[in-house]
Amino acid sequence: MTLQLKPGTSWDDTYARCLAAAPEAFAPDRLLNLVRGGWHAVGTPGEHTTPLDGTPIPGPPRIDIAEAASAVDFAVDQHGAWSRTPLEQRKARVSAAVDALAEHRDLLAMLLVWEIGKPWRLACADVDRALDGVRWYLDNIDRQLAGRVPLPGPVSNIASWNYPMSVQVHAELVQLLAGNAVIAKTPSQGGFHCLTLAHALMLRAGLPVTLLSGMGSQIADALIRSPGLGALAFVGGRANGRRAATSLADLGRRHFLEQEGLNTWGVWDFSDWPTLAAHLRKGFEYAKQRCTAYPRYVVQRRLFPAFLETYLAVIGDLRFGHPLAVADPDAPLPELDFGPVIHAAKAAELARHFDDAVVSRAVPLHRGSLDDGGFLPGQDLGAYIAPAAVLSPPPNWALHHAEPFGPLDSVILVDTESELLAAMNAGNGSLVASIATDDQGFAARIAPDLMAFKVGVNAPRSRGDREEVFGGLGASWKGAFVGGDLLVQAVSHGPEGADEKLYGNFPDYSLYPSR
């Protein structure tokens, strides 16, 4: 069956809609930076291609350290006025921004499809999750801020590319509600068009926002160490997180650094395979390119035949391909589990990791083929990779202690509870973990020893929404925990003189809420 691009969804069509929706932020040939209270053609536009099919698109206009420092200084001044703005006025402006974002929901979602390869359903869910989450905070912020005051300076946000709306924009709007001006750096790998449109709408609502682009190695000092900043919010990998934490080490500034981790699913004395199959399939959404994906399964050896039968049935039935490819112009967009990974280099890296594991005597459980995907005739397939899995990778495998951030799973067989714990804790701390078991007593006994912030029993755990808290154990998190009331507490101060001890992982203590 020959597929075609859904009419009206091309990149040219999508970018034209951006020009019409926010001409102040999009030029015909480049994006602008939101600095010093307005949109400016500063920075050097870089080359970029969409992972969908290699189409060239405007890249983020990268500014230098001097421009970044100037933007931060302006945001510090903005913060002074915004922090004194009455809460009711802040709520009205944030609510107006949410309404504007909702009005452009489909365009924001289409940008996520093109920029970071999300299938349509998941792209819409990312936008909806952000807006619904902020609406919850609008309903609860009076209670959450009772007796609290804004931070002494703006919040600097350095976030990953995979959830521009439901993580980054959501967090910024809550920070604004709490009385803080915000600064955000666009991720270099994708999401900058979506963030540009979102911030154009936020600025129109009268919110003190700054959005800038640049190489992290060149402008990080301004975004992390500038003396007027009130907090650093970071979402990304451990290497960059360590560098950010090192820069903050002498400042004692409020911070929350989500550094991901190897999330694992243990299978022990278990029999409900149809339920697990449903969880396994959902786990492949967006090619496992999220901080709460489960790429490692630790399985009791005697259960391996049943697990393998269940797993192979799921992985062999996954739907992947070009998210905008249809057989008929009037057909709806395809219902896919995932599209491309973030770029061709990542797809090649995952393929190398699979080959390296097999060369090192891991058992190749499954290696899918791109022939099973749905693609346009002759399109660039560089950023696509079919799902794959290996059994018993060696301890020196590059991904034995790290997450792949792609559809490459590994399975470890164990015989004892101690082996199960050791294998599930191999990543030295994670955001989530789950146990599949018929024995609730076993689950209760082993869960406290898992180095995961959230532990699910016969169900996955996720970042969570609204009142649900979020954090990480071990090397997966530094600083204050977030989510629910904790997010507001992380970006505000309690009564003056109060000895406030936040939940989180700090150099001198760790304090955990009920998880």
Automatic annotation (TrEMBL):
Organism superkingdom: Bacteria
Entries under Pfam families matching the protein: Aldedh (PF00171)
Record bears the keyword Oxidoreductase: yes
InterPro entries tied to this protein: Ald_DH/histidinol_DH, Ald_DH_C, Ald_DH_N, Aldehyde_DH_dom
Entry-linked Gene3D superfamilies: Aldehyde Dehydrogenase, Chain A, domain 1, Aldehyde Dehydrogenase, Chain A, domain 2
Keywords per UniProt: Oxidoreductase
Coiled coil spans: none
Domain Aldehyde dehydrogenase span(s) in chain numbering: 47-485
PANTHER family assigned: ALDEHYDE DEHYDROGENASE-RELATED (PTHR11699)
Name this protein carries in UniProt: Aldehyde dehydrogenase family protein
